[in-house]
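Q: How would the structure tokens look for this protein?
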Amino acid sequence: MPYPSRRTHGHSWGVNRSREYISWLAMRKRCNNPNDARYKEYGGRGITVCERWNSFANFLADMGPRPAGYSIERIENDRGYEPGNCKWIPMSEQAKNRRFTEARRSALLRVTREREAKHV
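A: Here is the predicted structure in token form.
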């Protein structure tokens, strides 16, 4: 096995990244990388990843395995990613928790006005 000293948890080896590792990477990227498409909705509004979770091993120890079809949820939406504020939930439930961004709000308002105009 090449580079055994770099392989600490076994979740990120090559293309076989675990579900947990992919969630951890995405969480950190949207909170820490201003070039990420979703940064504005996360890091840009103050959502952070706790220092403990800068280590994948700590994140995995606190969250446990991610069930298939689940994603990470912050229980209190305005708090960051930290133990006690996160849990795995079904993606179908996660989709219901979306915040209304200004673009979504504008699109919804436009569609509502179009529908109202048709019924006048």
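The first strand starts at residue 70 and ends at 74.

The beta strands are 70-74, 86-90.

Upvote if useful.
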